[in-house]
What does this fold into?
Amino acid sequence: MSNTNDIYQDALNRLRQMGQDADVSPEVLDSLMRAEVVVTVSLPVRMDDGSTKYFTGYRCHYNDVLGPTKGGIRFHPQVSRSEVQALALWMTIKCAIAGLPYGGAKGGVEVNPKALSPMELERLSRAYVRAMADFIGPDIDIPAPDVYTNARIMGWMMDEYETIKRRRSPAVITGKPISLGGSLGRDEATGRGAYLCIREMATRLGWVPAEIRVAIQGFGNAGYHVARLLQKDGYRIVAISDSKGAIYSEEGFDIESIWTHKMQASQVQGVYCEHAICELVEHKNISNDELLELDVDLLIPAALEGVITTKNAANIKATHIVEVANGPILSEAENILLERNKIILPDVLANSGGVIVSYFEWVQNRSGYAWSLDEIRARLEEMIVKAFNEVWHTSMHEERSLRSAAYTMALRRIGDAVAAHGTREYFKNGKK
Ligand code: NAD
It folds into this structure.
């Protein structure tokens, strides 16, 4: 990904721009212009050959005014302090929009996890929790999966935390295996939430699914489920991609069979699938950059941040973009897209299904009572459709972009909580 070296600076520029639109006090905005705490740790990991390697890990508690902080852990070579802070800021905004009792956090390790054996990966996951054990907790900060981390890794992390604390504590982390207190529906939650937002948008725009051509960048947890659900409704998924490349088919792909192939390959090989989707199906090969510029109706970036920049924004042909990845469009690129009348459903709303069902998992763990899949899906739908309606309504009535409407909602909620905490006088410098 290019142009992402200072993704946090870009996130702050956007926050400043959004804050000018919203009627919130400058002090509230100022409090969000910096992270509360960012921890950097060095993680020694014993490799299978007996040597020790050191990996850099991060955890950021961005803002906890609405509750304990919440955010995923990413394992990726490009993880950086800047990226972790940007992602934690977006979690703060996202939790506020969804109406969750959480602040924002994020974590990550600079590593290519596919280069590690399953045992090395487990040792790294446990080392991360050993380093962060006093910094996370069910009432402090609750991690979850993100790019290249999954339920299996969350299970190892919970196990390590419980070993250190010498007590059961399933609510310390979400996205766990079902057998260790994970929630039904968590695996599909991000994709399902995005699908529900697209469904609501489609109703308002009068879309006929069979006429809508969709390109999806990133065929991981989030990308697969949104693709699957859209296809079920009749949408034509004409392009998908992973880190190794993209495939294109004018007739549209059968999402389920591609995913089954990918999963079978990963079962053979361990935690990650080494087979690129290009190797698994009949296809026309294109690049990830070409996928973004396809002439489609709906573009869904569902991989990493910073993929739409000032360099390619003018070439984007899709009329609608739904950000399933966090931060796929840099702020200046968004201005170009908005000038070209593109409709952008922002990440802080479109991918909030993941944290909503993570919240359900946390609630279930704390009450010791598991909900049915139907109940989880119904509650997710209720919460995300409500958030969507509020954002859409604000956008239409206050004539602002969907992102500006979403940030306005979040900033007002955070502002209300700051005031309710009793700090208003403090922010007025004692003046009544
Ligand atoms: P994942 O690890 O399951 O999948 C990531 C996918 O992106 C894989 O298919 C990978 O091959 C692909 N990819 C990686 N680098 C790429 C590149 N350079 N070009 C194209 N594709 C590339 O991760 P995920 O959980 O699906 O997360 C994807 C995005 O969704 C991230 O931005 C993440 O922060 C966001 N997100 C995820 C969740 C969640 O619950 N999983 C929740 C909210 C947001």
In short: The longest helix spans residues 402-427. The pocket of nicotinamide-adenine-dinucleotide is lined by residues 145-148, 190, 217-223, 241-243, 288, 302-304, 324-326, 351, 354 (CB under 6 Å). The mean pLDDT is 93.
